[in-house]
């Protein structure tokens, strides 16, 4: 009888440990999903920022060409 009680206690203890492990696993899964969501958010922000930077570089290049063209026109007008 004592052996059966000991086995039953051990089974209960292992079942409790298993339950705790399952809870921890669920918590880890939840945290991983949150981390992936944050990663996706910041990755999208970085891609948007890269796109904006490229657009700004294009604008700067366009204004630089206009400035060079205007300087050339001014020199031509001054030469006349």
Concise description?
By secondary structure, this protein is mostly helical. The chain has one helix at residues 2-79. The mean pLDDT is 96.
Question: Could you characterize the architecture of this molecule?
Answer:
The protein is an all-alpha fold. The chain is 98% helix and 0% strand. It has 1 helix and no strands. The protein has one helix at residues 2-79. The longest helix has 78 residues, at 2-79. It is rod-shaped. The chain starts with a helix and ends with a helix. The model has no long low-confidence stretch (mean pLDDT 96).
Give the N-to-C terminal Cα separation: 118 Å
Pairing-aware structural class of the strands and helices? Answer: mainly alpha
- Tally of helical segments: 1
Mean pLDDT value: 96
Q: Secondary-structure element order, as H and E?
A: H
Helix content: over 70%
- Indicate the radius of gyration in whole angstroms: 34 Å
The coarse overall form would be: rod-shaped
Low-confidence stretches: none
Number of strands: 0
The major β-sheet equals:
none
Proportion of beta-strand residues: under 5%
Question: Key terms for this structure?
Answer:
single chain; 1 helix; 0% strand
Topology of helices and strands:
Elements: H1 2-79
